[in-house]
Design brief:
By secondary structure, the chain is of the alpha/beta class. It folds into 2 domains: about 170 residues, Lysozyme-like (3-Layer(aba) Sandwich); about 80 residues, no CATH class. Helices cover about 25% and strands about 20% of the residues. It contains 7 helices and 15 strands. A 6-stranded mixed sheet has the order 1-5-4-7-3-8. A 4-stranded antiparallel sheet has the order 12-13-14-15, with helices on one face. Strands 9-10-11 form a 3-stranded antiparallel sheet. The radius of gyration is 24 Å and the shape is elongated.
Length: about 260
């Protein structure tokens, strides 16, 4: 599978350390998520993206990757930069490593193995530029759409799996809003909160009779019960009665009576 064909490939130009770690690869199918990263300290405006990437490579090659470097023993060096992709300030996307490389990028397993590392070139309280946010969203959308096991909920900020401020402002500006997006269709809605879809006549009824405040979130998708199509919500069960007159084909199950007889 060829992905991110628009990315500028820097892999041949970046320094590597074949003797370093983790120096491992997995199948691309095992990569199911994305961890978003930033730089830590602010990135100087006068330093180009390309120069900054070289500085990050140097830092990653020189770093001691032991969990506790003060505990004694020989330092552990990395095999190269620990990010798969980088996003420049003008929206360019750079590929830094093979996508199926296992990298030490977030201090947590299995995420080091199962997640891509995407580095956005900013730090401190700097905010992503509009082109950066757009490019980051394009990367994540392409990744999520590429396989069924890759979902919005698997897009996380570094700070969610490690004691760090990373990815800084990106956590609120991108990561959390991205996961909370409710995807709309012409006649329905996907609710990421419960991973259920409401569509068709049930969606029309939900919208026109009180929505979230009255019925709550969907708890199931549509299902068949004894030949009847139903869908469970937090405070109601919708039933589909095609034999009824228009306007009366969606009926609500009497939950109170059902509880008394259950």
């Amino acid at each position: 599978m060829i992905m991110f064909q628009h990315a500028i490939d820097l892999r041949p130009a970046l320094r590597r350390n074949p003797a370093g770690g983790p120096n491992r690869r997995v199948s691309l199918e095992e990569k199911t998520g994305i961890v978003v990263h930033y730089n830590g300290g602010p990135v100087p405006a006068e330093v180009s993206d390309r120069e900054w990437i070289d500085r990050v490579v140097t830092w990653h090659l020189q770093r001691d990757w032991r969990a506790n470097p003060t505990a004694g023993g020989a330092p552990i060096r990395g095999d190269g930069v620990m990010y798969h992709l980088a996003v420049g300030r003008a929206g360019e996307v750079f590929q830094l490593r093979d996508l199926n490389d296992v990298l030490w990028h977030c201090g947590s397993w299995p995420e080091n193995r199962t997640h891509l590392a995407v580095f956005v070139i900013l730090g401190g309280n700097q905010r992503a530029t509009p082109p950066q946010l757009s490019a980051l969203e394009d990367i994540v959308n392409e990744w999520v759409a590429s396989a069924s096991q890759r979902e919005r909920r698997n897009v996380i900020g570094h700070q969610e799996v490690d004691w760090t401020a990373c990815p800084g402002t990106l956590q609120d500006d991108f990561v959390l809003p991205y996961r909370k997006v409710i995807e709309m269709t012409t006649n329905g809605r996907w609710f990421p909160e419960t991973e259920c879809f409401v569509g068709g006549a049930f969606w029309d009824y939900w919208v026109n009779h009180g929505g979230l405040m009255i019925f709550g979130y969907p708890l199931t998708n549509e299902r068949d019960e004894d030949g009847m199509t139903v869908q469970y919500f937090e405070r109601a069960v919708f039933e589909w009665h095609p034999e009824n007159q228009p306007g009366y084909r969606v009926l609500l199950r009497r939950l109170g009576a059902e509880a008394l007889t259950g």
